[in-house]
Amino acid sequence: MTLYPLAGGLALLLFCLLLALLWRRASRRRNATYRRLPALFSPGERAFLAVLREVVGERALVFGKVRVADLLTPRSGLKGQRWWRAFNRISAKHVDFVLCNRDDCAVLCVVELNDASHQRRDRRERDAFLAEACAGAGLPLLQVTARARYARADLEALLAPHLDSRHDTPVAPAIPRCTACAAPMVQRVARRGSHAGRAFWACSRFPACRHIEPIDRSQE
Predict the structure, then answer these.
(1) d(Cα 96, Cα 132) in Å, to the nearest integer?
(2) pTM (2 decimals)?
């Protein structure tokens, strides 16, 4: 007869412990120093990355937001404070994109996407230092000006000397880019209205971008 009150007491104790745990977690969130960012790349960087991957194909691996200190290191002749001063100059910097050999991840080249922020004095100084450091280490650094659209042929000409031709593959048909934001388009099918059942191009950033275009079947 005494088991029922005991079971009820245990249930109440477990409930109180659960409430305490949830309160503690909520308190930690309120007092957190950092917050999570929505995405690794900005919309402009994502648009360029899509084109970069199309052009590179199977010839290289593409990495983004790579720390310069993972690409370069102070030369062995530097000692003590001189070594650390040189290391500290690169430890907090990163580059936009890095292309690596598919077999061993050896670095082939660095690609910097230069938007309007690179016109600032501090950015110009940073870019000049990075160019000098890469040149001294024999690491190719390629500069691309950010824009709404990118010509695949121009990007291919820029990258080709640094890519592994052993992995050349036939180039797939180009995916159209959104004329509003330069993101890749995706095929959708209208579900209602006078165009129900018809396919069309829609921006892959929907609902942030709602641009759509008809599909030109004459090009297929």
Answers:
(1) 17
(2) 0.64
